[in-house]
Amino acid sequence: MAAHKAERFDEAEAGYLRVLDARPDHAKALYYLGLLQFHRGDTATAIKFVQRCLNFARTNGPAWNTLGGLFVAAGRKTEARDAYRRATLVAPTMAEAWYNYGICLRDEGDVEGAIGALRMSLAREPGYSRAYEALATVLYQAGRTQEAADTYREWAAREPQSAKARHMVAAVSQRDVPARAADDYVRELFDGAARSFDANLGKLNYRAPELVAAALVRAARSGLDAGAGTRLDAVLDAGAGAGLEAVLDAGCGTGLCGPLLRPHCARLVGVDLSGQMVERARARQCYDELIVEELSAFMRSRSRAFDAIVSADTLVYFGALEEPLGAAHDALRDNGLLVFTVEALPATASEHHRLEAHGRYAHSEQYVRSALTAAGFAATAFEAATLREESGEPVSGAVVTARRA
Ligand SMILES: C[S@@+](CC[C@H](N)C(=O)[O-])C[C@H]1O[C@@H](n2cnc3c(N)ncnc32)[C@H](O)[C@@H]1O
Q1: 7: helix, strand or coil
Q2: Cβ–ligand 1 contact at 190 (below 6 Å)
Q3: Can you spell out the DSSP letters for 75-124?
């Protein structure tokens, strides 16, 4: 096991096999030999060894739980759910097994089952924070907003240091709503989401990068509004680039805008608070510079450095827009372009911007326009658009294009 820990896999394997020579039913050796195969990248063999271990240790909850994880890694979802279920049966006090079982049920669309299992997880271990978050999200998506709010409150009470819990309590209670999402919340959220971000948003018909890139290219080529309504791919593909010198992708995330912007500028810079997201953007190799920093602070530090700034699905983490728009104005050269997306605040709302129960801010058109004017921008285009889907429903918003006056 020491060799295994030190990743000397051949030596560890020889050791486990020696134990099994002497005692073929040694469950622990079978279990760790399975894990070792997984660590080597051979999930199918790992599953076989852990299954053999379970033949001799049928009431071992953690081993059933591990088997579930191996099935998940192998994409064998039904078997994963059954293995986690077995873990909850043989080890009913194991919060992690209930949690994993709940996630499988959620992914299968069994909302009630998922809620039940996640509640069991919390009943077994009231400090199990992953279960609070998952439970509140499932409740929210099921339209049970009051129960979702109660779950976030419980989570925040148990874990007052959690930035996510604090932010979501503000979102559901409308009390102590921050002017923008706190830096530690953004980092916690997106560092955690980075690995699956592209795949998850792909499933939600995410369109913000295409929308902002097309709006920028249209505005750069022919002035505001020209060509609005033209098909996006036609705008982005049409021949030569837009001939911009320096472009900033503010809140670049994993860099989904990068490949769309690259043909249109000589220099492409990205900034984002989440180091994990930026690592993924770096892997795309289309940015000349990537910086991990708060975007308004960064833009204030780069006076008149850019011809254009785009910000896709990022100002939705800001309520008040005065600071990021003022900073963008500072960072743009004369006649520089700013293109960003916002989510739409329902026309019935009385306020300018609101932190919605899902944790992002929505803005009114009137407020966005007046904040742009106050920051020194002119000639604004405000085009309604569907940005993506959430819980099967389209998320309505707008693509905003403005020019530094
Ligand atoms: C939904 S993602 C969008 C990423 C990318 N623009 C895209 O369209 O794929 C929002 C990004 O904004 C970043 N972000 C939010 N608030 C920020 C802030 N104040 N400063 C810098 N980055 C921020 C997050 O870290 C996250 O990567």
Answers
A1: coil
A2: yes
A3: T-HHHHHHHHHHHHHH-TT-HHHHHHHHHHHHHHT-HHHHHHHHHHHHHH
Residue 243: per-residue pLDDT: 81
| Per-residue pLDDT band at 380 (split at 50, 70, 90) | confident
Half-sphere exposure of residue 119: CA atoms within 13 angstroms, side-chain side: 12
Please, what is the Cα angle at 354 between 350 and 356, to 5 degrees?
A: 125
> Which residue matches tokens 């300018």?
352
Under 8 Å between Cβ of 298 and 183: no
Please give the number of the atom of ligand 1 that sits closest to the Cα of 249: 6
Q: Tokens at residue 91, please?
A: 């080890």
* Pairwise CA distance, residues 161 & 69, whole Å: 29
CA of 167 to the centre of ligand 1 (A): 16
Q: With a cut of 90, say whether residue 202 has pLDDT above it.
A: no
Q: What angle do CA 383, 403, 295 make, to 5 degrees?
A: 90
Gyration radius of the chain's alpha carbons = 25
Q: Are 362 and 354 contacting, i.e. CB atoms less than 8 angstroms apart?
A: yes
**Which of 234, 227, 229, 261 shows the shortest CA–CA distance to 339?**
261
Query: Residue 239 is which amino acid?
Result: G
Residue nearest atom 26 in ligand 1 by C-alpha distance: 253
State how far Cα 257 lies from the chain centre.
15
pLDDT at 24: 95
